[in-house]
Amino acid sequence: MRYLRPAALLAASLVLLLATDGTGGSAEASAPAAVALPRIRTVKLPDRAGPPKVRDTWTGPAFDACTAPTLDTLRAWRGASPYGALGIYVSGSQRGCAQPRLTADWVRQARAMGWRFLPVHVGLQAPCADPTHKPRRIDPAKAARQGRDEAGEAVHALRSLGFAQGSPVYLDIESYPMRDPACGQAVVEFTLGWTQALHSAGYRSGFYSSLDSGIADLAAAARAGSTPLPDALWYARWDDHPDTTGSGRLDPDLWPVHQRVHQYRGNTEETYAGATLTIDRDQADAPTAD
User: Fold this and answer.
1) In angstroms, what CA-CA distances link 255 with 176, 207, 215, 223?
2) Pairwise CA distance, residues 129 & 49, whole Å
3) Which residue stretches of the chain have pLDDT < 70?
4) How far, in Å, CA of 31 to CA of 52, rounded?
5) How many other CB atoms sit within 10 Å of the CB of residue 94?
6) pLDDT per residue over 158-215, tens digit each?
7) 215 within 8 A of 233, measured Cβ to Cβ
8) End-to-end CA distance of the chain
């Protein structure tokens, strides 16, 4: 049963009383509008550590690929492509591709070429998401705790790959339907727990999702005053606009200072210096991993 605030309950009662005029006629025109409940309620978790100091940021073209590319490809692209940063899937039980090359030595050599990194973690997904490809879901009753657990897994991966404290890792929450507010609330609480644990471990929190689902719910959580929120957003909107302005859907005062990545085109094949990759294109103005 949906809970109604006292004001909403009073409004609902008035609607019932005024629904007819006593003769069978309609009185809809005079009925007051029902009071809408907020989609995302305020949740505040303790964040004694707070976000660590930013070690590095990158403003410019970036890309992400399902599998970490070969070092030869990165070497060719570094000299010939417009890209300076790349997304890599460092951890998570529901990563879409194997990562046979992703080691601390791979990171060290790629870093020496001048590449910057956007680490990504793909774990539990929204309770209402399509289970076809990523069946493991967030439990709304345990969302914050599960978020903390996944952050611990991501921290272990960052450390094993040689990424220093202060580096970000972006939580990948794939698109989900917006019909059920409880689903969005679970995503928010999961992300708050994720952020809390990353800050405690000395790492920065990032969040990736569709501009129309996960990002929309995180923006609502920010407006509601929930904390601790991610330090950077990576939003997917395939509009072919290489910018970080929010595509008209993300208010300019939310995550405004070097805190955004825009994935603006997906699944495109590109070739530079004879090396071909299938990538998603991104425009970055955000923390990168060191």
Assistant:
1) 22, 11, 11, 12
2) 32
3) 1-37
4) 52
5) 15
6) 999 999 999 999 999 999 999 999 999 999 999 999 999 999 999 999 999 999 999 9
7) yes
8) 49
